[in-house]
Amino acid sequence: MAHDIKLWAAELGFDQAGITDTDLSDQEPLLAEWLAKGYHGEMEYMARHGMMRARPHELLPGTLRVISVRMSYLPEQAAIAHVLSNPDKGYISRYALGRDYHKVLRNRLKKLADKIQERAAELVARPFVDSAPVLERPLAVNAGLGWTGKHSLIINRKQGSFFFLGELLVNLPLPVDSPVEEGCGNCVACLTICPTQAIVEPYVVDARRCISYLTIELDGPIPEALRPLMGNRIYGCDDCQLICPWNRFANASKEPDFSPREQLHAPQLLALFDWSEAHFLKVTEGSPIRRIGYRRWLRNIAVALGNAPASPMVIQALEQKRDEVDEMVQEHIDWALTQQTEKLASQNRKTARLIRAVDKGMPAHAR
Question: 0.85 exceeded by the pTM?
């Protein structure tokens, strides 16, 4: 049965499936400490269910095993370097370029449950994809899908870390898989590269500093000290994965649903900032980006525009949008305007100095 489940998972598009029990007792003190330090920020739901996150069997009474699956999402033409190195464009985490993964994985997990039930009529199962208080990463580790990297994400020796996770809780006493050997060694590249130094120690992320949290989970103002560090990242951040040596093995996703939407792949910041709310909702229909809403979308882009090269066109766009938004977004537009005007003034001063220097070196008849 366990062998067939893995075959069925592969047929449904999953790159790997593993099986583990529900024992996450070793994670409870780590979770408690992380919450006690406030590293979850405004993600109140992380604390709401207490230690239930480490007790999958409490979510579905009778659960004996967890079938953990992963599915790659990296687009074939990811254009990562092209976007990150161009401050006039907006960088969107590569997982969010296509269809909402929650729906994709959940539907496949339901189909997997149907397959299992054809063989085991007594099956009671429930799929999860970020949709319940369960520690999916430790479950994936226990199921042998990879190890926990120092950035806290799961790394697979053959495919890096650009993949989604999902779980199917079942009441069947299936044989369990074994964890794999950890492979990070002495590498600390992810800690070093993080723009906001959110990885406060190996395996521990202070979400309050993480760009993914700031652009997606945080509802209010982004701390001003962190805004310049965000660059042109307007939805999520992939830096800790991009620097990871294991991602040289990352495979492009074969899933059509994760193909990038044209208007999100390598977009110009000014074009995005010009979207109406109706256009935002239309383009992000069925996308994970829609969950942040239009105001946070504008907030994030305003910060990126503040970090962009000095431009009268940017200043004009910021000024035009200011009266159309609420106070929270206005605050970020005002910040961006300050950044832009200061850079433009500095640029003008440099130009004036250059002109004076050239002028002094010219013969009198040529001045």
Answer: yes
